[in-house]
Amino acid sequence: MTGAEALAAPAPPTAPRRNESSASWRLIDRLGLAFAWFLGVIFCLITAALVLYLFVQGIRYLRPSLLVTNPTAGYNESQTGGFFDPLLDTVVIAVMSMAIAIPIGIAIAVWLSEFGRPSALARVVESTIEMLAGTPSILLALFGTLLFEAPWLGFLSRTSGGVVYGRSFFAAAAMLSLLALPLVVTSVREGLQAIPSHVREASYAVGKTKSATTRRVLLPAARPAVLTGSMLGLGRVIGDTAIVVLLLGNTLTNVPSGSVPILSMLRGTGSTLTSYIFYNAPTGDGDQPGKAYAAAFVLLLMVLALNLGVDRAGRRGRDLRWSS
Amino acid sequence: MEFLTPPPVRRLAAREAGLAQPALPSANGHSNGNGNGNGFPLVPSPTFVGGRRRAAPSTIAIDRMQVDDLSVDYGSKRAVNGVSLPIRQGEVLALIGPSGCGKTTLLRSLNRLTELTRTASSEGRITLDGVDIATIEPTALRRRVTMVFQQPNPFPMSVFDNVAYVLREQASRRPKKPALRGAVEEALSRAGLLDEVRADLDHPALRLSGGQQQRLCIARALAANPEVLLLDEPCSALDPHSTQVIEDLIVKLREDVAVVIVTHNLQQAFRVADYVAFMYLGELVEYAGAPQLFSAPRQQRTKDYVSGAFG
Fold first, then answer.
1. Which residue of A195, A203, A206 is the best one to mutate when testing the B interface, meaning the one whose CB has the most B CBs within 10 A?
2. Is residue B5 domain-shared with residue B42, that is, in the same domain?
3. Does B255 reside within a domain?
4. Which three-class secondary structure string do you get for chain B?
5. What is the mean pLDDT of residues A294-318?
6. Is residue B109 part of a domain?
7. Which residues of B touch A322 (CB under 8 A)?
8. Does B78 share its domain with B133?
9. CA distance A77 to chain B (A)
10. Which fold has domain A53-63+80-315?
């Protein structure tokens, strides 16, 4: 027996304990911990049940044909067609809204984070963004109906006999972008503020202007934050119903206005998956639960894909950081 | 350990006494290298700062900047109070002193970075090649007086673009990549980084090691072809090996560019600097040649600081 083996012989009989024992905790703390565990598990179960239920119902009712046919009139669910237009419109509305929200959101975030003078104006902008984030979308929708019925905005929707209809893709996308805007601004601003000040100064210290620094250094560094904010905003846009119902006209199929190919569609009315579900839910006008479940399943898949995207966007480039 | 012993004084004493001088063995039994302690005066007061000087004193000295009675305030707090000193090409000037003594503020005043702080205000005069820097457009000034920071902070782009970024905006028209290649490689090679990154020029700069990142930052600062290079504790976030590489680099650079380095590390100041300015509570307490300041400080506060009595 070598010396080393002799030393190693009286090994501890049990594996080393990694965590401290909670035996010495006060009772209330132990109860609190158990309660927190319990709540966490319950929360997961509820979410799992919801997703599972929608999956089961979705698989039960979703047929590939539903994705490529349009809603039609019929006596029962087998005759009322699918939801091609609502699906298409969901994508169109999402793209339009984000095309408005992302550039404006980035611009506001850059101004707030890098310029922000006069500070009184910056405070006003900040609280406006916060207020917008807390505004129920139905209020935005209501405001939108007033706004887009104004005669000078008549070119954005159908107009007949001097009366502006005020419901169109343009109107809905404009109001939906206001839903996404606070999320984009908040995320991008946090991304910019997370950049250590010495990185900005390093750019100034080699003779770069503030605009060059913002464009070439700060915005690329904040790209993950831009992505995260856009994904969160997109989720909000896809999931909203009130604005679509009030401002997109809520016609089950697209009703174009005018004769210019794409413009006529965007000036016309339509519906999205959410408003389709709203219409077909058991409490809605259509009352076709099977169709509602199928559409909800598709919507759920889109939202899950988005969440995955947010996760990826947030994780990307996290290893490429400076120490502060 | 080597740089802690022996005090330079001993070697010098022997040398000035005209003894044939092999390198004295240091405490750990190894030779301490070149054994040069050039220009040390024979002095009686022992200090705790010592070690190997990296380079012989420079032979050239061209006046680049002159700081004249500079005072800087942040709001009502005075950070720098009536400081005057010269900055010369061919010499490394080290600013030392305890935290909050104003050495970084003084450094940032040299390329007007203090103006980014809204509450900052300054009096006095700083000239660059005889011209008051207050009259030079800040971005133009900062291309002539560039700065490297404590934390390595390459920009979120490729190694090549980090250097090219500095060159691009300088030219009136944006030159294309092949046109910049020569200048980029020259800057990288001046910073001693080219051989290590030649194959990775298109890789993200943030993937380099900390020491490489810091040398990239130096390359970036050199790409603008500045007259003065400011270094704000450039090694304090780095490992000893990277520190040594960068210190060697600093000594090499002083021929082409005036170097000012802020450091907390007295041994480092001793190793790289030709002149040292000791600051305390915003005042310039003592400005002297490095050997003199460390071995025979004139002021009691300097003596206390370099011997570790406070700070």
1. A206
2. yes
3. yes
4. CHHHCCCHHHHHHHHHCCCCCCCCECCCCCECCCCCCCCCCCCCCCCCCCCCCCCCCCCCCEEEEEEEEEEEEECCEEEEEEEEEEEEECCEEEEECCCCCCHHHHHHHCCCHHHHCCCEEEEEEEEECCEEHHHCCHHHHHHHEEEECCCCCCCCCEHHHHHHHHHHHHCCCCCCHHHHHHHHHHHHHHCCCHHHHHHHCCCEHHHCCHHHHHHHHHHHHHHCCCCEEEEECCCCCCCHHHHHHHHHHHHHHCCCCEEEEECCCHHHHHHHCCEEEEEECCEEEEEEEHHHHHHCCCCHHHHHHHCCCCC
5. 84
6. yes
7. 151-153, 206
8. yes
9. 55
10. MetI-like fold (1.10.3720)
The residue of chain B nearest to residue A201, with distances taken between CA atoms, is B113
Chain A residues lying within 8 Å of B144, measured CB to CB: 207
pLDDT in tens, A10-44: 555 667 777 777 788 899 999 999 999 999 999 99
pLDDT tens digits for A92-148?
999 999 999 999 999 999 999 999 889 999 999 999 999 999 999 999 999 999 999
Check whether residue B130 and residue B47 sit in a common domain: no
- Residue A49's pLDDT band, with cuts at 50, 70 and 90, is very high
Asked if pLDDT for residue A188 goes beyond 90, the answer is yes
> Domain span at residue B46?
1-53
To the nearest whole Å, the CA of B174 is away from the closest chain A CA by 13
Which residues of B fall within a CB distance of 8 Å from A320?
156, 204, 206-207
Q: State how far residue B170 is from chain A, nearest Cα, in angstroms.
A: 9
List chain B residues with pLDDT less than 70.
1-55, 169-173
Residues B93 and B122 in one domain: yes
Percent of chain A with pLDDT over 70: 93
* Domains in chain A: boundaries: 53-63+80-315
**Inter-chain Cβ pairs, chain A and chain B, closer than 8 A:** 85
**Nearest chain A Cα distance for residue B235, angstroms:** 14
Number of structural domains in chain B: 2
Which residue on chain A is closest to B153 by alpha carbon?
Answer: A199
Q: Are residues B108 and B9 in the same domain?
A: no
Q: Which of B24, B53, B82 is the last residue of a domain?
A: B53
Residue B190 belongs to a domain: no
Answer yes or no: do B155 and A322 touch at CB < 8 A.
Answer: no
- Does residue B188 form part of some domain? no
The pLDDT tens digits of the residues spanning A219-265 come to 999 988 999 999 999 999 999 999 999 999 888 888 888 888 888 88
Task: Output the domain CATH number for residue B246.
Answer: 3.40.50.300
Q: How confident is the model at residue A8 (pLDDT cuts 50, 70, 90)?
A: low
* Same domain (yes/no): B148, B254: yes
